[in-house]
């Protein structure tokens, strides 16, 4: 009995009211597969399989139905084949050819090509081929298996494969667009071709390349030119004394170092004056050259320009040390004098100073007084740090933050403007300006967000126009290519041309909210102030005898048919004939101000009263 069954039934079956049975010992899970008497069996207690009772009855009491199709054909040639197949006739029979191919070598002054030896195996049992390349030590080329065993076509893309009849000595074969030259074969291959009635020709000599000649030269052993070292070695090996000619000098001059200040004028394109310290060790006449580090020099700090060694006056450069029999002359303390030039492996270094110990050594031991040379003082370099161009990620202020500081801070935002102007969005209808005539008919909606000066462009489309509508430009800040400053709200006037990236747009009209917003800000949108537009019109009256004649001429040129109302095209044409240069924004505001009926027609009477009223004021 489980522990949970002992609790009263009124206890709800919820988490916290059910406890595990501590007396339970069997925790296994049921399995579907099991071993019974060494046989894998499946428990089918919970599996229901459908069966056909008619099929079971036929299998129990009568001959089962024929469940196979067709009968097995009697075997032919299966016990003792009359015609042996190739896999039986040529079992373990392989033809072996020796060849090579030429490979070009680039950027190597010693060779421009290399001869690579290969061994071609042809298996007669199935007509497959595989190629191996013998390994050559220190060749610098991965060698071994070159082509895996497979049938190789004579031409790529075709099912015509190479047969043993296609191989002949002193001829070229093309394997996967690589040409191999067959120059020899083994004895079994030659006997096989003679047995088949197609004897092979004579082998040819394997050509040599520069790499083979250099390898033979390296492997050539040359006796040492001087046997003094060998004599000393054998003398010490037989128990004799070990001669040490420099021991006395080492004991007298140990830890005595002459230190010189040198300078090297690097005359290359990116060169400059380089300062070093030359240390001369009197114990073994070796030198080392250390670099003098300077802050903000722009160079990587290397500890040594030259490790400790003897510096030859005229170095003899060879491929390997000890190959030359010429004796080199090394620098000594007599050569290291302030004012002299030391040539260190092609670098002419000028000695301009030394330390106090070096001055005392030269004065007491050699009788030479070291006088430091006077160098011209270098002028302090002024570095100009140009601002890198904008990389296109984020805003330009974000990129400049990493230029001005190692720990960039986020750019400050105009929080007051964002709170006060965020709800104002100026929307304009614009057309695309393009050299392609069909592109000029495309219409767009340009939205300017006054809170953060961002711009968003949507393209409108008509049915069956072939133009896809939708988002054209993601909301972002755009720069004016003429001023290289970001666009602001004062740049958006009716008739103005704005450019985003490589696309130019002309603002045609604005919505009702945009026009009212412009009227409320006459200090920013001066062309939307009707008082300034009337004042601008009144300035043209200076070209007339009096103001009345100006009004009469204006009314005649605008309303030629004396209808009392004119549309926008008649207004633009009349102002053009009069020579009054009003912008599209000013014409648009003028049309809206004196449109009394809401039919987008200018009332001439209202215009007369507006001009006269403005004059009386």
UniProtKB/TrEMBL annotation:
Annotated localization: Cell projection, Cilium; Cytoplasm, Cytoskeleton
Keyword Chaperone: no
Single GO cellular component term: axoneme
Xref: SMART domains: DM10 (SM00676)
Residues annotated as domain DM10: 91-197, 254-366, 422-522
Pfam family, one: DM10_dom
Stored PROSITE patterns: DM10, EF_HAND_2
Keyword Repeat set for record: yes
GO MF, any single term: calcium ion binding
Keywords: Cell projection, Cytoplasm, Cytoskeleton, Repeat
The name this protein goes by in its record: EF-hand domain-containing protein
